[in-house]
Specification:
Elements lengths: L2 H25 L1 H15 L6 H10 L40
Length: 99
């Protein structure tokens, strides 16, 4: 196996892993945040070296900003901004001239 093929396999492997992580974050946000919090807690233990404790502190997921006034627009209380309503417009088909 040539060095080029090894580098190519590593790059493709990293791209696949990055795509998998992105898909998991987008499709399973609660699970990925729970796993991220577990990893951060494991790294933040006092028995770990200082560098790993610092990394564990940086990996802590941010708390979801919920409640009234957060701007989520997911409830019907009217406190947040919701998506503007769009009126339906009929599709009009026109024939091309000359056909």
């Amino acid at each position: 196996m040539t060095p080029f093929l090894i580098v190519q396999a590593l790059v493709i492997g990293l791209a696949v892993i990055a795509s998998l992580l992105y898909a998991c974050r987008r499709l399973m946000p609660a699970t990925s945040q729970r796993l991220q919090a577990n990893l951060a807690n494991a790294l933040s233990q006092s028995s770990r070296p200082a560098m790993l404790r610092k990394l564990g502190g940086q990996l802590q997921p941010t708390a979801a900003a919920g409640g009234c006034g957060s701007g989520c627009g997911s409830c019907s209380t009217g406190c947040g901004t919701s998506a503007p309503t769009v009126e339906e417009q009929p599709v009009k088909f026109r024939e091309r001239p000359g056909e």
